[in-house]
Structure formats: C-alpha cells, structure tokens
Amino acid sequence: MNQPPVHHNAPPGLRAWLDSVDASREPSVRDVTIDGVRCIIKRRRPSFGRGVAYALRYARAFLLGVCCKLFLGEFPRPGVLLRNGLTHEAERLAMLRQAGCRVPEVWWQEQGLLVLEYVGEDLADLIRNEDSTSQLWLTRAAATDMAAFHARGMWHGGAQIRNITLRDGELWRIDFEENIGSTLSRPLTQAYDLFQMLASLVSLRKLPDDVALTLGKLALDVYLECNPDPEVRARLTRLARLLCGVATPLRPLLRRLPSRDIQGFFRAADILQPLLLKL
C-alpha cells in the first residue's frame, strides 16, 4: 500500500448504457464492459414486506449480538449493524480512497444503484486455479496486505478471500457493504477480518485438505509476523478458544460430511488452535 493506487477512467457512455437497460430485469451484481471499459454494477431493490423483513433481520442481529457479548465480550448494536448496503459502501469507499487505499472508484451512484471501477480477478478464483507456487505467493501477499491495512487502523468487514482482487500485480479490496466495524472495537473487528479471510481461504473448492491447511497456516503466520498487534492477537485467541470449543464435540459427528462450509470450519479451528498453546 506504499504506492498510490492507479485508477481507470469511467466509460464515456456509462449514463447512456444505464438509461438503455431495463433496471427491473437487471441482476443484483453485473460485470459489464461499456465502451471497452469493464465495470461492476450493483443494484438493490426495495422488497415487499420490507418492515417485516427488517424486524426479522433486527431480531437475528440482536441474537448474534448477545452471543458475541457472551463469548467475545462485546455487543454489536443491531441498529448500527443494519445500517449497511450500497449507500454505506459508497461512503466507505470514498473514505478509504481518500486515505490512499486500493479500493474501486465509484463511477455512478443513485438510489439502489452503484457503478464501480473493475479492479481485477478475485483471489478465490486465482488460488483455486493456479499452481502451488502461485498459490503460496497469493496467500502470502493477501496476508501481508491485510496486515498493512490493519496497521493503518483500517478494517474491511467483508474480508473473505473473494473480496481481495489482483490487478496489474497489486492487491485491491472490494465489497464494503458490511458495517460491523462501526459497532465493535478496532481489535475485535480486525481479528474478525482475519478470521473471515482464513475461513474463506481454507473453504475454497478444489483445494485438498493438506493444501488448504498449508495456505491457512501460512496466512496466519505471515499476518501475525507483519502485524504483531497484541490487542488483535488477544481477540483472535479468544475467538480461537470459542471455535475450538465448538469444533471438538462436533468433529466426531460431522467430520465425514462433504459440506465445504463444515469442513472449512474444522480447518479454520485447526489453524487457530496453536494460538491457545501460546498463552
């Protein structure tokens, strides 16, 4: 993150293209090329029963908040968590771009619509399809980049490996709709960022167990070496204690299930478990 990010220019025919399509038939996310320029178009539409849906989301966020308070010591306020979406993402992108972070430019914004600069292929696809040498390089780069991002006091909120991209040899970050960092402490939010990256990395399809564990352990070691923040490590250790405590009784029952998410959960617990031995 030492070099200023180099952005592309918006396509001159963007507004005309937006006016030419039937918005009601457009998907929530579309990768499209306009006048030879690739961009990402995100849409959110009001849903029927919006009040009921919000109440259900609030109840879910409240229950998750209670669990977070019980096991991790902090209560994320549901009302803040639910102030997310495209407007929030545009605001965060503007703030991060002003700080010199590698995030996409907003090329167009209106109610329920956000057009973003395309900033490369996501690391999830790249790691799945590259050779072992490239997998190791990409994993190390992702962990180093997150450590530098966090060392500046930043947080992502949606730090899954699919939300890190590669363009022209530089890593970029995308998808900033989540608002968790506005209601949790910086150390816990950053520890959660790291957990999201690790869990999503070891859950990637096509990765054998040994490769997934190798990449996950590498990412954790590199991050902690580059960002030895004791507060982040303390929150991550507490999170590891929770994960390992849940994984131990469930492993005999669920270890043979082919679910990518379940196996990824056990892999993430295995990767974080050594933190408990260093207390």
From TrEMBL:
The protein's organism comes out as: Achromobacter pestifer
Q: Which domain of life is it from?
A: Bacteria
Keyword check for Endoplasmic reticulum? no
What is the name of this protein? non-specific serine/threonine protein kinase
Please report the stretch or stretches of sequence annotated as the RIO-type domain: 87-177
Q: Which UniProt keywords apply?
A: ATP-binding, Kinase, Nucleotide-binding, Serine/threonine-protein kinase, Transferase
Q: Does the keyword Transcription apply?
A: no
Q: Which reaction does it catalyse?
A: L-threonyl-[protein] + ATP = O-phospho-L-threonyl-[protein] + ADP + H(+); L-seryl-[protein] + ATP = O-phospho-L-seryl-[protein] + ADP + H(+)
Q: What class of enzyme is it?
A: transferase
Q: Which Pfam families match?
A: RIO1 (PF01163)
EC number of this enzyme: 2.7.11.1
Which GO molecular function, any one, fits this protein according to its record? ATP binding
